[in-house]
Structure formats: C-alpha cells, structure tokens
Design goal:
206 residues, alpha/beta, Rossmann fold, five-stranded parallel beta sheet, 8 helices, 5 strands, 40% helix, ATP binding, P-loop_NTPase
Length: 206
C-alpha cells in the first residue's frame, strides 16, 4: 500500500517535487479529509454542503465527495453487500487521499457503516489531517425524515441489506467531531467543524 505524502521513490530531484508546505503557502491552508458518517437521513449531505460553502467563502480549496454521486460513477459496478460496501469505502478513501495530497480539503459524505472501513481510510491520511465527523441522529428521526423514501421501502422488504434496518451500522467510538442533527442547527454543526479544523492548524482561525 502506498504511503501518503511519501516522495522518496520519485525519479525527479527534490527541487521538482511540490511538497505539502509549498501547497499550503499557495492555498493558504493545509490539505485534509473530513469524513462525515451517519445513517441515511442523518443530515450528512446537508452538513457537508454547508461546510463546503463556509470554507469556500473563506477562500479554501474544498470539494464534497458525496457517497450517492460516487455510487453512480466510480462505484457503479458495486452492490450493497458488506464486502461491496467495504470496496466502495476503500475507493472513496483512496480518492480522498489524493485530494488531500493535492492540498485540498475534501469532505466525504458517506454512510460508511463499518468501523474497520473508516479506520482503513484514516490510515491513508497522516494525523492531524483526517477528521472523522459522526452525524448522530436517532433511527426513528431518520425514518421520519426519510427524504428518499428508502426506509419505507426497506421496511416493506423492497430494499435488502439496508443500513440500520437489515444491515449493521457501527457508530464511531471516538470521532473528532460529534454533531447531533436532531438537536442542533446546521450553523452550529458547521461552526463546530470549522473550530476543529482551526484547532488542528488546517485552516486559520476566523
């Protein structure tokens, strides 16, 4: 497995390779992977898009990798069995790593139900550049929201291996950022995330 930020095997001289400090000087911030996990309907995409907007308006190079969009392209060949879910997250993690190495802040919004898969993504990115965000929301609230009608279909047996109903979700045990979308506003969630990015030296404090 390739190591992030390792240019020791490059054929070129050190004066040619662009390092992380040069990218930070150009962009005004460090690269990072913000990995938002939670049940379907927990508010991951809402938080990701709001955080992207807030960082963009502060002049950051930032991009959202949305799980649904990745599923429709890069991972269109995968189903929803646990092994295929793991491969889906592996691919997202590799793409996120490349964004991070380029000096960008990439916000991943994906259910990513298993801790082992999220931990594997974490290992691709050196500390303190990986920030796991747990978008916590009770299952009953997610089902009540059900913006895509997926829970209704899962309860009716029309969707097999649906996370939270017929397939497991393992909540993070020690996320860097915990937001409760059933009790807090999006603005409060974004502020909490930006404070963590500033504390880690990824972006400048407001």
């Amino acid at each position: 497995m390739s190591q992030p930020f390792d240019v020791s095997c490059s054929r070129h001289g050190a004066d040619v390779v662009i390092d992380a400090d040069e990218r930070r000087a150009r962009l005004g911030h460090r690269g990072a992977v913000v990995w938002i996990t939670g049940l379907s309907g927990a508010g991951k995409t809402t938080l990701a898009e709001a955080a992207e907007r807030a960082l963009f308006e502060r002049g950051c190079n930032v991009f959202v990798l949305d799980g649904d969009k990745v599923r429709g392209g890069l991972c269109a060949d995968l189903g929803f069995s646990l092994p295929e879910r793991s491969e889906n997250i592996r691919r997202i993690g590799e793409v996120a790593r490349l964004f991070c190495e380029s000096g960008q802040i990439v916000i991943v919004s994906a259910i990513s139900p298993l801790r082992v898969d999220r931990d594997r993504a974490r290992r691709l990115v050196p500390a303190p550049h990986f920030i796991e965000v747990y978008c916590r929301c009770p299952l009953a609230v997610c089902e009540e929201r059900d913006p895509k009608g997926l829970y209704r279909k899962a309860r009716a047996g029309q969707l097999l291996e649906f996370t939270g109903i017929s397939s497991p979700y393992e909540a993070p045990e020690a996320p860097e950022v915990l937001v409760d979308s059933a009790a807090s506003t999006v603005g409060e969630e974004v502020a909490k995330l930006l404070d963590e990015l500033a504390r880690r030296g990824i972006v400048r404090a407001a």
